[in-house]
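Work Package 3 (structural annotation) set out to generate three-dimensional models for the target panel prioritized at the project kickoff. During this period the team completed the workflow that converts sequence records into discrete structure tokens, so that structures can be stored uniformly alongside our sequence database. As a representative example, we reproduce one entry of 380 residues exactly as it appears in the project archive.
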Amino acid sequence: MRCFRSTVQKRAARAQASVLEMAGNHAANQAPAAEEGEVLALVQLLSSSIPEEQEQAAASLQKLACSHAVNQTTVAKAGAVQPLVQLLSSSSPGVQEQAAATLKCLASCHAANQTLIVGAAALHPLTELLLSASPAVKEQAAGALRALSYKNSRTLRMNFRSLYPLVQCLSSPSAGVQEQAAGALCNMAGDTSHHHWLNMNIKNQDLMCKADAVILLVECLSSSTQGVQEQAALTLYHLAAPWCLDERRHWIIRAGALPQLVKLLSSSASGVQEAAVKALSRLARIRTDATIQTLVVEAGAVPPLVSLLSSSSPGMQEQAAKALGRLARNHLKNQILVAEASALPQLMELSSSSISPGVQEQADIALKKLSGKYNECAIM
């Protein structure tokens, strides 16, 4: 037994050295395809009785799997998932952190691994780690849940007890924890890649609201970290979904979202700007209460939205035109305010000369709404 363990340790040590060398020499720190023998040695070391060896093995597997689809598959097929899930319950914070980080890398944009990890009962221990005293452990656990929920919210089967700790991470003093938690919530609220998953997303949204996510997300909009701002705005965008009642939109507005979202329209980060535009556009979408349109305009949204029509990003132009159209729909006062902000010439130019069909369409719709000739239901 000692001889076998010594052999495993030696092979693992060689594998670790090889991984570090590959990561250091390869562009962007992405390792090339891993050797099966190296991976197996590292996986065996995950079951060591020595926490330091477990941590080092998990860290080496993480380096192999990070942003490398072939290695993600190789590591998972080598049997790494189950021991990594078991290490989430280790008494060592370092081991917990590396195990969660490796599961995050294995799950990232990899549907088969996502299913495998969820099937290995990783959800409960990851949720438990959100209560850890270590910010680093919390961040990696939230990051793993974010990776697992990417286009995969249906399989997570969240309930209030498992979702509540994730929501509470939004109030963490660590920006890293906040960003990963907001990203996970965004995925769970907004995964509509398949229509039959819609009921699960509606359930998740309701659970988030019951867990006071709206207030905490609005607070995150004023974060000094752009990643936190963007993910918080996108989650609010999903919570203001077309099928939700106007009551929820008012709830978001009462929490103070409008002035913060308007402020983010002038962010130096395009991702933050676009997330804020989308959230404001969703909030302004009429169901039964047109006063929301008035509130958005009174918050000062029109001038920065008009400015974004001249953005170099077609996506930004499209979202800005859509938002302005929604603010103007069947609302004479808003139509006048948008026109006075010099939106008409820019919308006409986008309608006639934009190379993006989406921009042209939204500019046309906005122009019709500004002239009072568009009376159909707003587009989602």
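The two ends are 64 Å apart (CA to CA).
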